Amino acid sequence: MHHPDPHSYYDSAQPKARRLRLKLRVDFAARRLHGEVVLEFGGAVSGPLDLDTKGLEIHSVQAPGHGPVPWELGPSDPILGQRLRLDMPEGAQEVAITYATATDAMALQWLGPEQTEGKVAPYLFSQCQQIHARTMVPCQDTPIARIAYKAEVDVPEGLTAVMSAGPTGDESLGNGRHVFRFAMPQAIPSYLLALAVGRLESRDLSPRARVWAEPETVAAAAWEFAGVEDMILKAEGLFGPYPWDRYDMLVLPPSFPYGGMENPRMTFLTPTLLAGDRSLVDVVAHELAHSWTGNLVTNASMEHFWLNEGFTVWAERRILRILHGNDAAALGWAMGQKALEDSLEQFKDAPQLTLLRMHLEGIDPDDAFSSIPYEKGARLVAALEREVGEERFLRFLRDYMDAFRFTSITTEQFCAFVGTKLPGALEAVNAKAYLDQPGMPDTAPEFRSVQLDTLTALAESWPEGGRPSAQQIASWKPTELLVFLQKLPRKLTQADCAWLDEHFQLMGRGNYEILVEWLTLAANADHEPAFPRIREVLLRVGRMKYLRPLYGALGQHARTRALAREIFAAASPGYHGLSRRVVQSVLEAYPA
Ligand code: BES
Ligand code: ZN
After folding, report:
1. Where are the alpha helices (DSSP H) in 445-543?
2. Which ligand is nearest to the CA of 547?
């Protein structure tokens, strides 16, 4: 038995499913999906076949034309879930499984009407990355086994379903239910299966791009992301024709635990991006870039996650540089540097999680998640680019994507490819230090600009009384202010906080990056005027990137700890399961 992915029961000696046909009935009352999945193998299979499941209730297993299939669920592992072993009859080419999901399926968040913008209808969304597809569908839940899929989703009349696939029609069933059909003809990793159901409207942004949101936010979303076609064109200029037909986006309710998720043909986005000034669209550039670096060429397992995220961060900043110039890109790298330093600090007692090539046997990939694969990975990519020159590196990248289109690869495969196309480059940048050694190599590339140097010097002079001038205060763009705040000393006085709020009107910011950076500084300083806003943000937003630092900062004073515990008690029923877990671990680390 050979398990090439430590997070899957998939056995590489067994055949891979080629296609899924999925029927899902969405039951909001019971908070369950009633499903039937047919796995097609594209040829005869027989004997043992192992699938991943977690919390699924299996009702029946049939091989069409061959009758019932004997099956057995293995013991339940807290990370992997349960192996579902099927004993496939001779000659069967497909297998049909009927099942239901658990009410606490990690891939799914069921929202009551009060958790939506409109407050009138429930909402459901999925988030399968890293290994939660198995809580939604029995499948070979590893990116090695790519699949195409078709789906039919049966929802209450009046609600709309969207998926990481193209729509192929919908109709009323006449009984208060409505069915939506989808097809994803290209082979995708299971972590890109995605579904959302709610009261949704859309606005076209270009012939191939539209944004979906609740009716209350769709106009704001259309305005915020109006530049997406331009971004697609710039990305195509770098990486070649957009490979997925449409690029649509869905703006989710605020409990969505990530900033964005690159579900193919339907990027999922947090509503915290709706700053009202288009200042947070770098997240869209990132998810769009995954259309090449990730969805087209993905990691073979989470041990090689950096291939996805490191390349995508690099690509995101490359797109940003074309759209907004070198200074904007340098600020992007500076924000990344801050995230990298925070993650290195977070994992200072787990240096093995700071390698790019990770060893994750027995480790929950959600616990290994940090900015390290993103930012250390992006710096390795940038180092290679600097070593061979921009033009040659872009040509290499196009060759790389041609060579590995629609496949899932390891770091070793990547290195072998670089070795043949850019001989000597890995050695020249000391790639081994990034891949297999903890922390950051001191040869890592730096990104500077005059403006970045000015902001850094000013922030560092804060303790000696350095303050931004009225002219700076009036002219800084949101990212400049953010970088300035990030570079301030973490320990400010309450008078410092009052000065900042007065001069930058921080409490009322609609840009969540700025708002949360500010509230984190204020929580660190035990600055009471910020408490109501902190409560408001933590009760509304479930994005883990914001919950972790804010709850973390609240851990430093007795009364902010009490505040955090009180807020969490009220907020946690509305949090996504992943967010709840993260906050629990932050609160458990508080001093007693
Ligand atoms: N694919 C990730 C989100 C993700 C990672 C979900 C791991 C589950 C497990 C997505 O592309 C991403 O990186 N989103 C970032 C935004 C980006 C600009 C760094 C986020 O959510 O903040
Ligand atoms: Zn990403």
Report:
1. 450-460, 470-475, 478-487, 494-504, 512-524, 531-540
2. 1
